[in-house]
């Protein structure tokens, strides 16, 4: 990745056991990694380019130990009225996250607040260090989460806890969010990034089309009835029977050898 970004650092981690892993680090330390429009635009453009890059299988998005992100940029929004927000449609960029096909993992630590929490919720898997602090402090600013938080948190932890967090602005520990089923891996502060990269490498070691259709099918479960979801899953399952990797995977099992994935 040769492109220079103002607000993020981008790296690619080699993966000897499969496709490589992209790493996006939010890099606005002076603003606790607040997500202004430019930062979100950069994150989305990198995810889109990784989606097109055949050498990459998955991505980790992280911040710093101190702050994954303290939310949308309050200074950017402070003078805006509702007409300004409607015309600018500042959060439209967030919709593009839903179109990313390859999995992306949040590696969170420290403040994971407001829009930062929403970015973590928009990731496919959430890994958190023990020092992560989750909250929706929007009510303290006279607003509510505006980048999907009311919906994704409710789906993830249920109505009661979502109401508590969104209506009271209460800070939750990583352990509380792990117990609520939102955090998938709870790990020491020294390990959260490495553990996220290891998980991303594991995912990137499997056939990319199966991984992408698996992700798509799980996400559909949030939108469809069980019947519709099972139909959707089955079509994706049958679709995989046209991939070279399906024949390679099943033949390798029968021949008792390691499969050689082509990702096609
Ligand atoms: N936007 C813009 N700047 C922010 C910011 C944010 N969300 N969070 C922190 N900063 C800035 C501060 O203004 C400060 O800048 P200056 O040095 O220029 O004053 C700098 O980052 C350091 O912050 P603090 O001095 O406040 O650091 P702290 O350690 O005392 O406190 C904190 C850290 C608890 C995270 C505190 O900064 C804070 O409460 N931040 C705001 C959290 C918040 O309300 N997030 C929700 C935003 S709204 C939203 O996200 C809407 C949505 O749904 C998309």
Report on this structure:
The chain has helices spanning 37-52, 74-77, 82-88, 92-95, 114-122, 149-157, 159-168, 174-179, 192-204, 208-220, 226-240, 244-254; strands at residues 8-13, 20-26, 56-62, 67-69, 104-108, 111-113, 125-129, 133-135, 172-173, 185-187. It folds into 2 domains: 8-204, Alpha-Beta Complex (2-enoyl-CoA Hydratase, Chain A, domain 1), CATH 3.90.226.10; 208-254, Lyase 2-enoyl-coa Hydratase, Chain  A, domain 2 (Orthogonal Bundle), CATH 1.10.12. It is of the alpha/beta class and 264 residues long. The strands form 2 sheets. Strands 1-2-3-5-7-10 form a 6-stranded mixed beta sheet, sandwiched between helices. Strand 2 (20-26), helix 1 (37-52) and strand 3 (56-62) form a beta-alpha-beta unit. Helix 5 (114-122) packs across helix 6, helix 6 crosses helix 7 (159-168) and helix 10 packs antiparallel against helix 11 (226-240). The protein is globular and about 65 Å long. The structure holds acetoacetyl-coenzyme A (CAA). The site of acetoacetyl-coenzyme A has 21 residues, from helix 2, strand 6 and helix 5.
Given as residue ranges, the uncertain stretches (5+ residues, pLDDT < 50) are none
Q: Can you tell me the number of structural domains?
A: 2
CATH superfamily of the largest domain: 2-enoyl-CoA Hydratase, Chain A, domain 1
Structural class call reads alpha/beta
Which geometry do the CA atoms define? globular
Number of strands: 10
Number of helices: 12
CATH class of the largest domain: Alpha Beta
Order of neighbouring strands in the sheet with most strands: 1-2-3-5-7-10
For the report, how would you describe the main beta sheet? 6 strands, mixed
The hetero molecules present are: acetoacetyl-coenzyme A
* CATH architecture title of the largest domain: Alpha-Beta Complex
| Helix-strand string | EEHEEHHHEEHEEHHEHEHHHH
The value of Rg in angstroms is: 19 Å
The N- to C-terminal Cα distance equals 23 Å
CATH fold label of the largest domain: 2-enoyl-CoA Hydratase, Chain A, domain 1
């Amino acid at each position: 990745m040769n492109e220079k970004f103002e607000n993020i650092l981008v790296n690619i981690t080699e993966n000897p056991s499969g496709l490589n892993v992209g790493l996006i680090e939010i890099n606005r330390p002076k603003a606790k990694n607040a997500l202004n429009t430019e930062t979100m635009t950069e994150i989305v453009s990198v995810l889109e380019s990784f989606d097109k890059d055949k050498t990459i299988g998955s991505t980790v998005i992280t911040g710093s130990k101190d702050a994954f992100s303290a939310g949308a940029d309050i200074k950017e929004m402070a003078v805006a009225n509702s007409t300004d927000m409607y015309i600018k449609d500042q959060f439209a960029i967030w919709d593009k996250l839903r179109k990313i096909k390859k999995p992306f993992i949040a590696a969170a630590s420290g403040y994971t607040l407001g829009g930062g929490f929403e970015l973590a919720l928009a990731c496919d898997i959430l890994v958190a260090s023990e020092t992560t602090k989750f909250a929706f402090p929007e009510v303290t600013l006279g607003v509510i989460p505006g980048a999907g938080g009311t919906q994704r948190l409710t789906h993830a932890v249920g109505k009661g806890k979502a109401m508590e967090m969104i209506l009271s602005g209460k800070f939750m520990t990583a352990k509380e969010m792990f117990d609520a089923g939102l955090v998938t891996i709870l790990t020491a502060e020294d390990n959260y990034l490495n553990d996220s990269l290891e998980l991303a490498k594991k995912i990137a070691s499997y056939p990319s089309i199966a991984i992408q259709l698996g992700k798509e099918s799980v996400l559909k479960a949030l939108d469809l009835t069980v019947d519709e979801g099972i139909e959707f899953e089955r079509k994706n399952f049958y679709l995989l029977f046209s991939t070279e990797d399906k024949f390679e995977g099943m033949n390798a099992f029968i021949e008792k050898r390691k499969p050689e994935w082509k990702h096609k």
